[in-house]
């Protein structure tokens, strides 16, 4: 797993190098969302409010909301509507109720047309009021229903008796008469207030006093999720999944990126790093057929997670790096000899660097001087799937040239084993990287040498790892 931190520059690199793929995946996601909208027909939702007069607690309002959406109410509404193929069980999923502020129960109905949605919510509200009134009027104890009425009659009789006593009392001639009339009026007022409180506290009276606050309003639009919401959600979901897939693949990548890891996998020392000018066409592996053309169209034939090439100083500086690698090879070898330059197949950056390195070794100005000259280099391509290196002939050693972040430890170990099977010692490793060349070339500098031909694995002799 790579320990590189996922930063905004990484996401920007995905957008920049995989924008064709992201566009196509987003369009596919939008089409999937459109297809999903065809499976779910449009629906419309509207609400009807029912006002509950009197004193109601929060739990009582929640209970009334549950009653409004219960099967007892919805089944009666379904029977009254008489819609073909739509029963109470289907309508239960389309009806909801909730308690709002101000002792109001909002009953919502969902249907395939605005008209049906309005009729459904209105009918459920009406059935709820009727059902609540029926509950308030029903009682299993007949005597319990008679007691409040008998109490009212007793209070009325007591009020009339108080009036008679007040009229019979001394009409204000004495202090005792005035006090008696005052006490009788207080008693009458207390009885009236007691009956008023009794009426307000009567649950049957409260439950029966419900009012439907007008018909349901016509829905202004479809209920979510609408067709447009499904299309946008599908496009966004596919887009995010593609980006997350790229980040996960990069996070789980086992390709070696650092110099110590590469040197440990090949079992040799790093001789240096060389640079080649970045060319877009040069980074694309050759391939024919419809699949290869599709990959090129989508930009899948090149890796997206490679860092952006830095601007190179000039061609003279790049040439100096190649000379230094050749000089280290010359100083490391006891006598001048021929070496194989092993390049993994598919690593175009390493192939160009190996060709330039071989050309630089051939251009040694003083091969017979005291410096003993650069070793002779021959470039061969090796398949990482079935690595095979030519047996020792004129060459007596191997120099591995590759680009960082392209191969796993197992693939590089296979190349090292193939070199050992062919009796070639890996004398060093050269890492190749791309840079952006300046538009102008230094005056008088010779052009780059052409890369020599590769030795094909089928024609080479030697064992396979």
UniProtKB/TrEMBL annotation:
Residue ranges, compositional bias (Low complexity): 355-371, 442-455
Species whose genome carries this gene: Streptomyces sirii
Pfam family, one: Wzz
Family: Belongs to the CpsC/CapA family.
Membrane topology of this protein: Multi-pass membrane protein
Residue ranges constituting the Polysaccharide chain length determinant N-terminal domain according to the UniProt record: 4-70
Tagged with keyword DNA-binding: no
Membrane-traversing stretches: 21-40, 228-249
Region (Disordered): 355-374, 440-465
Keyword presence, Endoplasmic reticulum: no
Location in the cell: Cell membrane
Taxonomic lineage of the native organism: Bacteria, Bacillati, Actinomycetota, Actinomycetes, Kitasatosporales
Cross-referenced InterPro entries: Bact_polysacc_biosynth/exp, LPS_length_determ_N
Keywords: Cell membrane, Membrane, Transmembrane, Transmembrane helix
The protein, known as: Wzz/FepE/Etk N-terminal domain-containing protein
